[in-house]
Amino acid sequence: MIYLDMNGLPTVNLSGFVQEKRILDEENRIAQKFYCDINGKVVCLQAGQAGEAYFYDEYNRIIQVTFLNQDGEPAAIKDGYGILKKTYYRDGNEKTNMYFDASGNPVPLNKGQYGIQRVGEISLYLNKNGQVKLCIDNLLNAYPVMVVVIGIVLCILFCIVPQKLKVVIFLFYMLFIFYETLMFREIGNIRANLVLFSYANTFLRSWKIRVDVINNVWLFIPFGTGLYAIFRKKKVWITALVLSGVIESIQYFTGLGIAELDDLFGNTLGGVIGVAAGVAIFYVLGKWRNMSKERMSDSV
Predict the structure, then answer these.
(1) CB-based contact 21:33 (threshold 8 Å)
(2) pTM score, two decimals?
(3) Are strands 192-193 and 259-260 parallel, antiparallel or unpaired?
(4) Across the strands, what pairs with 83?
(5) What phi, psi does 126 have (nearest 5°)?
(6) Torsion angles phi and psi, residue 291, rounded to 5
(7) d(CA 179, CA 215)
(8) Which of 61, 127, 55, 71 is nearest to 94 (CA)?
(9) Cβ–Cβ contacts within 10 Å for residue 185, how many?
């Protein structure tokens, strides 16, 4: 298979190759696949593999992917594993992915997970034994309402704690943003989605899309509130736009995720809402303090 540009000429795609060479098995399934340049020379993708070998079950479902180097030998990709094993639910939907080295030994990835399990549209991290791990990512993925609860608590904390503590909490929250958006992510190919509101048609139909969109907004709401609480200026929402732009750019150039215009919009919207929330909370606190002073003066 050769990738062509709008003029029908071979072109290098975003993953860095021009054509795929496929080797089929006796049942006409893809047994091996290699990525090649315009001259047919095998090249490595940004993730590290030059090709893959596929193994199937009796239902023609892929149960193992072995990553290959340019010589066609099993080799680990940049994330540290060379074999991906899959299991399925009875209805045919993918259940688990587990990671192994070229010798078949379990391998932990960036966040200590040895695999993932899909429950509907939720992805949960697994331990070495294939069981669901006890970690914050699984808590947030399985119970997205916790994102809202934690966000509200943080916004209130930013507005009531002393100034120095505001700064400390804000710095830790900044680290959390980088942790969720950049740190410990699997390196993939360069990918971008520059269509604004690209999820509009699927937002109401897909639970996962709704959670992802809402999380992108909520992630930056405490950020906006924290900035306003520290500097007491409404224009600090622009920082959310700048930070989100930096994160999306890093994701694009490093392959640590998909650079999306929707994420930039959602993060910025979260920053704006966060600033508005900070203004509202300080207004309520001011009213409450004035009422308390009036009551004290009346009692005297």
Answers:
(1) yes
(2) 0.65
(3) parallel
(4) 66, 100
(5) -115, 155
(6) -65, -40
(7) 14
(8) 61
(9) 18
The string of DSSP codes covering 147-207 is HHHHHHHHHHHHHHS-HHHHHHHHHHHHHHHHHHHTTTPPP----EE--TTTTTTTTTT-H
Better pLDDT: 200 or 285: 285
Distances (CA, A) of 100 to 95, 113, 118, 292: 17, 12, 18, 63
Do residues 19 and 10 touch, judged by C-beta distance below 8 A?
A: yes
Looking at residue 144, what is its pLDDT? 72
Three-state DSSP state, 272: helix
DSSP strand E in 25-121: where? 30-36, 51-56, 62-68, 83-88, 94-100, 115-119
Instruction: Supply φ then ψ for residue 75, to 5 degrees.
Output: -155, 150
Helix (H, G, I), strand (E, B) or coil at 91: coil
Higher pLDDT, 60 or 214: 60
Q: Are 70 and 42 in contact (CB under 8 A)?
A: yes
Whether the CB-CB separation of 213 and 197 falls below 8 Å is answered with no
40: which 2 tokens? 């047919």
The secondary element (H helix, E strand) that includes residue 129 is none
Do the Cβ atoms of 46 and 187 come closer than 8 Å? yes
Mean local confidence (pLDDT), 274-299:
83
d(CA 97, CA 114): 9
pLDDT tens digits, one per residue of 161-216: 999 999 999 999 999 898 888 765 555 556 777 888 888 788 777 777 887 888 88
Phi, psi of 192 (to 5 degrees): -150, 145
Torsion of CA 102, 108, 110, 112, to 10 degrees: 180
Spatial distance between the Cα atoms of 87 and 93, rounded to a whole number of angstroms: 9
Look up residue 261 and give its DSSP letter.
Answer: H
**Alpha carbon distance 148, 169 (integer Å):** 17
Q: Which two tokens stand for residue 224?
A: 């906006």
Question: Could you tell me the two tokens for 252?
Answer: 């694009």
